[in-house]
Specification:
With about 100 residues, this protein is an all-alpha fold. Helices cover about 90% and strands about 0% of the residues.
Length: about 100
């Protein structure tokens, strides 16, 4: 009987350790999934930003014969206004 109780106690400890390990793995998995979601959003935002900047540069070159310095000046202005909380620079660049 004592041997059975001892084996049961050891088994219980192993089950508890296994459950804790599974909980830790599940937590890591959730963290990785959340990180992937955030990275997808950032990648999408970056693509939108690049598209807006490319369109701006094309229009400014074609309609105003703008130089790179002129285009960068507009980008910098939009970025500064975004920092003030006015409106997103990617929105301003496309307007």
């Amino acid at each position: 009987m004592k041997e059975t109780v001892g084996v049961s106690t050891e088994l219980e400890k192993k089950v508890i350790n296994f459950a804790a390990l599974c909980t830790g793995i599940d937590s890591v998995s959730d963290t990785v999934n959340n990180l992937q979601t955030v990275l997808r959003g950032l990648t999408n935002d970056y693509a939108i930003q690049i598209e807006a900047e490319t369109k701006l540069a094309t229009v400014m070159r074609n309609t105003m014969s703008a130089r790179e310095e002129d285009i960068q000046s507009i980008k910098d202005l939009c970025s500064a206004q975004q920092e003030l909380g006015m409106i997103g620079d990617e929105v301003q660049l496309t307007e």
